[in-house]
Amino acid sequence: MKPIVITCGDPAGIGTEVALRALSQNAARDWPITLIGDLHTWKRAAQLVGSEVSAVPLVDRPAPEGHWGVWTPPDGRLLPMQDPVDPNQEHLAERGRVQTVAIKAAVMACLDGLAAAMVTMPADKRAQQAYGVPHPGQTELIAGLCTAPRPVMMLFGPELRVVPITIHVPLRKVPELLTYELVLETLRIVHADLRRLLGIDQPRLGLCGLNPHAGEGGLFGTEELDVMLPAVRQARKEGIIVRGPLPADTIFTQSKLYDVILCPTHDQALIPLKQINFETGVNATLGLPIVRTSPDHGTARDIAWTSQAKAGSAYWAIRYAAEFAERLHK
Q1: Using one digit for the tens of pLDDT, what is the confidence trace for 248-291?
Q2: How many CB atoms lie within 10 A of CB 99?
Q3: How far apart (Å, rounded) are the C-alpha atoms in residues 243 and 128?
Q4: Tell me: the pLDDT tens digits for 6-22?
Q5: Residues in CB range of 33: below 8 A, 6 or more apart
Q6: What DSSP string runs through 2-69?
Q7: What is the pTM of this model?
Q8: Domains of the chain, first to last
């Protein structure tokens, strides 16, 4: 079996700690694992959680018995003077370099067939941009490396799955970005990947409206009538089961009717998801040629290296990556 690769994320955050805690709980279901990133950072985290890590020369080379293998790609080492534990040192560009090199290496390992899936620990968006990466987040960076034209972020837990149709954009820009083509293509990608990754033969999609009361027939806005409804009609012609657009204030009261709920804005989707599954939520990127999951939380630098971080979300991110990889590699 090819390994699942796990990136270090922001070396000043909680990513390495929660990843190792999750692995100690058998999150990977005995799937082989390779950790990617700065060896020094992974070793610090291992000391914190009582694990053992060792350097490995390549992604697909096993570590010594009882150790987790860490592969540090070229230029992926954190410079000694940039101590990730020092709360008074920002070193944004340096941290951005380390987390970005790890992401790129993990993507290439998956694309080259050396890894079965990748799990990304939380990264610092400011650090990524300080390093000179133009993408606003990891999802967009990974999609660019995969040349995937339209990545779709699905966040989910045991009780709910949601997809924000627009992601990291100002709210005032959403109406102009919410096009017929974007809504239809997102419906298509979600439908296809729920079948491919989750094994749901006939996914049931719910589409949330943008405006109050889903526009109230055009009284409170026309995006539902002009953009979303035509996309829904076309999707249905293609055999996609989808209802909507439905009012945002009621669609989640009937969430059990849907395998996933799609929302025009980031916060429409994430507020209910985090209310229900805050400590167990997972982010999976759909529309990619590879499997990628991530914990649904940030770097939490305020509690990094204090043994306070909870590993529930990291556990499920690794667990689902293993399940998806198993389904695709049968």
Answers
A1: 999 999 999 999 999 999 999 999 999 988 888 999 999 999 99
A2: 33
A3: 38
A4: 999 999 999 999 999 99
A5: 3, 4, 5, 6, 23, 68, 69
A6: PPEEEE---TTSSHHHHHHHHHHTTTTTT--EEEES-HHHHHHHHHHHT--EEE-SSTTSPPPTT-EE
A7: 0.92
A8: 1-148+288-330 (3.40.718.10), 151-279 (3.40.718.10)
